[in-house]
């Protein structure tokens, strides 16, 4: 039977998918064609996406659909011949975006209906949990994870089995043990975890329940970022369904293992992604990190043994249990096994969710899958790991995706943010951008982070405003080391990374700002100088009329002049000149 | 002058929330979230009521309320503009959008227009990076913004509010 499925993750909805759905539904109802939804397909740049299925087979994918297309789609679907839809159909180049990926954590994303447990079961869902509960011991489960080589996808890449084993062995004081999922996803520019929860919430529940069994947890909690309302709604719905189907609660799948799950919505604080701060927040306090040790495995939530993993870490677990640890470990490199999900964004042609085996080069991801840089510009760098990570220059794009190899560049694997930059992005400005973020998000508990990041930010600000001084680069370097060494938690310890990596690879940009008072990327407004060339200016007065500061003098048919002292460097004149008479440098 | 003694919120609205959560350990954030859902922000007398019910000190309650960016101690305008300042939006020119909003409405991050119509709030990543630069107004997302497009959106909202006020 013919049916259609619309991609409705947050980004699809933002692009207009829900409007497309309401336009299509009444038209298709008459024809008896069911309309379903799925989560994020991952091709964010092509949203809204409408998939046409014959039974279980995807026969055609329509992209960038708008409400206005609804009548044409409905008319075509009523007949046999779909060729009228060719113009809306995805191009082979774009199909390659998905074909070049290996999807494990995302295996159901964009395929299953996230609101329906039966759909998940039909794709082999909950088989891993059933297998575990039908006779595997806790040690056996942990052993499968050990063989798989699965490491934490939240950033640090710590071996998952080790944490599980520590939590399993740890003695509880009152009989409680907790399994916590970190869905705080703080990196501004990353949305992998949101996509998994919105698109395949049962996969997360299954992975968490397998972990809960392995450590002997009595309760599971998902800490979800406040800015993700749709994820919370879908997960709530999935938890209810899972409870009704016997995958949560008492005597799960008829075994004597019992564990329930609840959601805790965060309230907006980046530092709460740090595991001990997250626990503080769960307990209702300000989210300030605790000193480690003791680690959460010994004394976590309510001082009881707790295990915390990232969403993507858990999302790999069901597949590993059904396919075996060895199969998972066959993918990847010597030191990094399996796959990694990235949120590919920035100046790239094809942005979206990408899951690739470890060991792929950055070039293959950004150019092979992402299609390179938009508007024919030159690629400059990629930012990985958000505020804790760094910028890797284009010249190093043969670096492979591997925890060690990426750390060697000064950046980190991170949780999966991958923001691509072209020649128009100023790297000093980029460092300043992240320091602005960390100064605002520093919880203030330790001096190095609270004051140190602020001073870094001030120095970067004066450099971008043309007030950089000799010795500023050295001062930045010294301060970076001090903050790294002196900060209490990962936030401060990693906050200097964006500065250090840009200093390492783009030092010339810093020098140009400080010594020549020039911004090579033409981004720092204070360092720009707009000029009208008398030989090209025909005196059309366009620029003068558009100048909001009234800083351009001249009469009709005579060359105009910018009064530099009054110029606010907004660029309106450049944008309005049709004769190429205005330049900026 | 201190306004706290004058503020009179209808605390009966909060009673069911306190009844359900006040005695559950670790619920302070949840209670504040629900209170904000009710009142639109966290009035001072509500904070005191929460402190009394949970047994926390008013200082602790205010400490939590000011730590998390979600909580507001002032009422917001009819339209809450959440402007994304995430990395992808930054790279794609969010600064120009901020400038356009500030020029059009005369408000900066955290401020509300005098007519009570708009509040501007910077946020980090709305998760729609592929549509960057992005802003969200009362739950609706607007993507691939340009300064011109932004001004157009704001003006049409103003117009809409004006019509609603009349009719
Ligand atoms: C400042 C800071 C922010 C963090 N934010 C996140 C986050 O948003 N999501 C996440 O999963 N881990 C985050 N982490 C890492 C966690 O502390 C923790 O290592 C992780 O949740 C463990 O899960 P994993 O082993 O599955 O990666 C953050 C760490 C620091 C220091
Ligand atoms: S950075 Fe703006 S939506 Fe992600």
How are the strands of the biggest sheet of chain A laid out side by side?
10-9-13-11-12
What separation lies between the terminal Cα atoms of chain A?
A: 61 Å
CATH classification class of the largest domain in chain A = Alpha Beta
Number of E-state strands of chain A: 17
Helical stretch tally of chain B: 7
Shape verdict of chain A:
globular
CATH H-level homologous superfamily name of the largest domain in chain A: NADH-ubiquinone oxidoreductase 51kDa subunit
Walkthrough of the structure:
- The complex is a heterodimer of chains A (585) and B (167).
- Chain A is of the alpha/beta class and 585 residues long.
- Chain A folds into 5 domains: 2-90, 3-Layer(aba) Sandwich (Glutaredoxin); 117-328, NADH-ubiquinone oxidoreductase 51kDa subunit (Rossmann fold, 3-Layer(aba) Sandwich), CATH 3.40.50; 339-422, Ubiquitin-like (UB roll) (Roll); 427-516, NADH-ubiquinone oxidoreductase 51kDa subunit, iron-sulphur binding domain (de novo design (two linked rop proteins)), CATH 1.20.1440.230; 528-584, Alpha-Beta Plaits (2-Layer Sandwich), CATH 3.30.70.
- In chain A, strands 10-9-13-11-12 form a 5-stranded mixed β-sheet. Chain A has a 4-stranded mixed β-sheet with strand order 2-1-3-4, covered by helices on one side.
- In chain A, a hairpin with a 5-residue loop joins strand 11 (379-384) and strand 12.
- In chain A, helix 6 packs across helix 13, helix 9 (192-199) crosses helix 11 (229-244) and helix 10 (201-215) crosses helix 13 (311-323).
- Chain A is globular.
- Chain B is α+β, with helices and mostly antiparallel strands and 167 residues long.
- Chain B folds into 2 domains: 11-67, no CATH class; 79-166, Glutaredoxin (3-Layer(aba) Sandwich), CATH 3.40.30.10.
- Chain B is 46% helix and 11% strand.
- Chain B is built from 7 helices and 4 strands.
- In chain B, helix 3 crosses helix 4.
- The longest helix of chain B has 20 residues, at 147-166.
- Residues 152-156, 158, 182, 184-186, 271, 273-275, 308-310, 313, 415, 489-491 of chain A line the site of flavin mononucleotide.
